């Protein structure tokens, strides 16, 4: 009964590049409860679009009750959100999901984001006190890279070679001979698959944040499942709920 | 004002329940709504053994609705009995267990396991469009409907509600068959089989290719089928299909439903069920309706 869908206020919205938008939301208590790696559900105001859009939390200002999301316009719902301006209302629920785990300060961590999987890594970079190396992979258009600079060394890879190393995030790791104890990542499935494999070879712990089409966002409808290595304690089959048991999983515990 | 209704001898404090599959076993939504306020919780379908369900993506949004092909993933009756029933029993609401199976024996096994459990009603799912065997295979032929109803009724301790599919030529035929087989009540409609194609990826939007369409897009079809069924068969009906608001719920009640289920609306607003209950009370207040039973089937 503590949780509900709430009407919040848009504080600001800006375009960061083609189809990429950043929005600050006055979210009240929701911001105070939120952790890096969690997400919020954003609801359309158009009655023809019933399902919330799950969008990762990019930054949290708990003290002033503000949340930031950075998202890509991928359809009519996100297109609607991108037209919201400061002072507009927005219908949201959250924070949802588990978020990234804490890491002890003596560990070395790779924070790896690919494309629109980059935004949640910013709050994680801010939250962790350990030694961080930030590796960001893009197809072509680079965004948010400078925002990571206060929190660690930032490396960029682009598929077209327009900035940083030409290639992907693992090409960066190899080119610079980077090492770490733990990988924390969010991005496209092929990237997460490659990181899982790399972590296994290097005997590193690897956490991945997954996405899937969701309906309820709270663990009831069983739409957004991923295959698990072992029988999941809740589902009693080899499926975990990304919205509730995730979105962050130990890579070794899920099939990618 | 009396909002209580009676389904096969079980009194519900109000006519609003959850639609199977949209509300889990109540636990997740218990964080949003006071389950004590609901007429009943209808659980996600449960089978004799755990079912893994279909591949993802399992859902896709469509205009005014959604397509789902979850494939009845569930932990199986053992976990359900141990974990979910005790959770729900803490609340002052009725428990309706949705039962699914691939064969008659599967259904019977679940129903027999539930004989000594503190649940109030059983809803027999013979209409899921998303599993290859069982489910809808039982729900599209009147002879099969009658046979499975009779078999389940013979073994069940609790009254049984047969959940009917709209994917038939004449739903009243199925309703009559269920009644002939001994059904105590009917619920309708399950989802309409649909398909969505992702034109950018040039593939099916859900991995199962087809899925069940739900949401307000299907409501007029559902209201019509409830009306037809109520006119044809003398059994209590639980009406569902795209109920978002109290007015939507009242359409079903006026068409002949004794109770209603709220499903897809829970995804749009986790508090949808209690808002529908509040809205029905406000409607009764506004029009001086003393007993909700006055409204059941009032439009003829």
Record keyword descriptors for this entry:
heterodimer; A: 256 residues; alpha/beta; Elongation Factor Tu (Ef-tu), domain 3; Rossmann fold; Dihydroorotate dehydrogenase B (pyrk subunit), domain 3; 3 domains; six-stranded antiparallel β-barrel; 5 helices; 15 strands; 17% helix; globular; B: 300 residues; TIM Barrel; eight-stranded parallel beta sheet; four-stranded antiparallel beta sheet; 8 helices; 16 strands; 20% strand
Give structural notes.
The complex is a heterodimer of chains A (256) and B (300). Chain A has 3 domains: 6-96, Beta Barrel (Elongation Factor Tu (Ef-tu), domain 3); 102-207, Rossmann fold (3-Layer(aba) Sandwich), CATH 3.40.50.80; 210-256, Dihydroorotate dehydrogenase B (pyrk subunit), domain 3, CATH 2.10.240. Chain A is globular, with a radius of gyration of 18 Å. Chain A contains 5 helices and 15 strands. A 7-stranded mixed sheet of chain A has the order 10-9-8-7-11-12-15, sandwiched between helices. Chain A has a 6-stranded antiparallel barrel with strand order 1-2-5-4-3-6. With 256 residues, chain A is an alpha/beta fold. Chain B is α/β, with parallel strands linked by helices. In chain B, 30% of the residues lie in helices and 20% in strands. Chain B has 8 helices and 16 strands. In chain B, helix 4 (171-181) links the parallel strand 9 and strand 10. In chain B, helix 2 (104-113) runs parallel beside helix 3, helix 4 packs across helix 5 (219-232) and helix 6 packs across helix 8 (272-286). The A-B interface holds A 1-5, 43, 47-52, 77, 93, 212-226, 234-239, 244 and B 21-24, 28-34, 44, 50-53, 56-61, 63-66, 68, 70, 73, 75-76, 79, 215-216, 264-271.
